[in-house]
Design brief:
Elements (H helix, E strand, L loop, with lengths): L4 H24 L3 E7 L5 H4 L1 E6 L2 H7 L3 H13 L10 E5 L1
Helix pairs in contact: 1-4
Amino acid sequence: YIMTKTQKQRDKHIRLALTNACEAIKESVIGFDYLTHTIDLNNEANTLKVQCYFIDEVAREDAKPQLDELTQIILSQLAAIKLNAKPAHISFLAN
């Protein structure tokens, strides 16, 4: 699968938005490790999946009250680049 120049730009913007979200979350949540994503650039809104990883199950449990807030951080970063994601696209896991 060869990406067009436009798709490469889009991919870069998505990565940057998610990196910004990740950094913001790391500042506010102890035990947050990293996030990763998959997406089909031809069908963004339906194929985006963001997986957020905590260092362990304890950290994930401790962060439960903040998960809505974390979801909003991610969604607002994506909205800023006109990607209308939904909370269902985001999952929180433990390493």
